[in-house]
Write a structure and sequence with these properties.
With 155 residues, the protein is mostly helical. It contains four helices and no strands.
Length: 155
């Protein structure tokens, strides 16, 4: 493998890892916005329903809406915004130790091995990221259900 090929592999792995990290940050931002939206909806409709007498029908849908909000918020806080075991960096310690022992690998071998390490971390991250995105989609459905339940409580 030439230094140029190894450099291209390195650059692509680095680009993919940066893209994945950006996707994670965007997902966290959207999750925060969704929690805020759910709180605003619950606050507006909840305030309306707290000020007048309720029938059992209204009470049931109000409780359903509040449960949907709580489930959405918990899903996002515990499932999406909680810390995960991300692999956006690779330990250089094994390579440094080898170099200290006088075992300096050729540049293309070093870049190839580091790129493989990043690829492995990126694949592990993608599995976690896919799960978080699924949780986010479920939370979007829960906020939609919350709005429907508030609407039914208002009939």
């Amino acid at each position: 493998m030439s230094d140029t090929t190894a450099g291209l592999i390195w650059a692509e792995e680095q680009r993919l890892m940066e893209r994945q990290e950006a996707d994670l940050e965007a997902l966290k931002g959207r999750a925060t916005v969704l929690i805020s939206m759910g709180a605003v909806v619950a606050g507006l409709f909840g305030g309306l329903h707290a000020t007048h007498a309720r029938s059992p029908w209204e009470t049931g849908w109000t409780v359903a809406a509040l449960i949907a909000f709580a489930a959405m918020a918990l899903n996002l806080v515990l499932g999406v915004l909680s810390p995960q075991d991300w692999k956006f960096a690779l330990s250089m310690r094994p390579y440094i130790q080898r170099m200290e022992e006088g075992q300096t690998p050729p540049v293309d071998t070093f870049i190839y091995n580091v790129s493989r390490g990043f690829e492995s971390g990126r694949k592990a991250n993608q599995t976690i990221l896919n799960t978080l995105q699924d949780r986010f989609r479920a939370s979007c459905m829960l906020i939609a259900a919350q709005v429907v339940f508030w609407g039914l409580a208002s009939i």
